[in-house]
Amino acid sequence: MNWRALYVQSKRERKIVNRLIKDGIEAYIPLKTELKQWSDRKKMVTTPMLNGYVFVRLPNSKRDRVYEVEGVLNYVRYNGADAIVRDNEIEVLKMIEERGYYVEYKNSIDINVGDLVEIKAGRFKGLNGIVEKIGNKTHCFVVIKSLDFQFKLKLNKEVLQRS
């Protein structure tokens, strides 16, 4: 069974995931927690990392069961078929959501904005991305693209290698 992405009504992602799970469908939504500030208070708020998307894993024979859940719009399509999301991409989302990122690795290369790089160590080893910004002497921001989603990671330059 492969993971697939669903388009769903925005702001209803969590309700849809709960309903899918209740109906016996394996579903996942990556969440992020951030500090929001209003004029009178600050509060930690948990929201979907990808607004309007939910990931499901189910056999092809049960593909249409997701449409029984209110708020599901359609499958994300690619080349005329349902877009398949690889297990390692779901694992990356889970790692970003659950653990954050830290690694120690030595590599003395010069990294510039716009360089195509590969992550050589740590939990995201093997992923490719583009350097978007150089943060300070030791870190840079790398954009990882997958299924038209972009994830920006703050990484130690030492774990990167130009592709």
Describe what this molecule looks like in 3D.
The protein is mostly beta strands. The chain contains two helices and 14 strands. The protein has helices at 13-22, 87-98; strands at residues 3-8, 26-28, 31-37, 42-48, 53-57, 72-75, 77-78, 81-82, 84-85, 116-119, 128-134, 139-146, 149-156, 160-162. The radius of gyration is 18 Å and the shape is globular. The two termini are 31 Å apart.
SSE layout and pairings?
Layout: E1 3-8, H1 13-22, E2 26-28, E3 31-37, E4 42-48, E5 53-57, E6 72-75, E7 77-78, E8 81-82, E9 84-85, H2 87-98, E10 116-119, E11 128-134, E12 139-146, E13 149-156, E14 160-162
Antiparallel strand pairs: 1-5, 1-6, 1-9, 2-5, 3-4, 7-8, 10-11, 10-14, 11-12, 12-13
Give keywords.
163 residues, mainly beta, five-stranded antiparallel beta sheet, 2 helices, 13% helix, globular
Proportion of strand residues: 35-45%
Order of helices and strands: EHEEEEEEEEHEEEEE
The radius of gyration is 18 Å
Distance between the termini: 31 Å
Low-pLDDT stretches are 100-108
Q: State the helix count.
A: 2
Number of strands: 14
From the spread of the alpha carbons, the general shape counts as: globular
Characterize the biggest β-sheet. 5 strands, antiparallel
Helix content: 10-25%
Question: Structural class, please?
Answer: mainly beta
Q: Write down the overall mean pLDDT.
A: 82
In short:
By secondary structure, the chain is mostly beta strands.
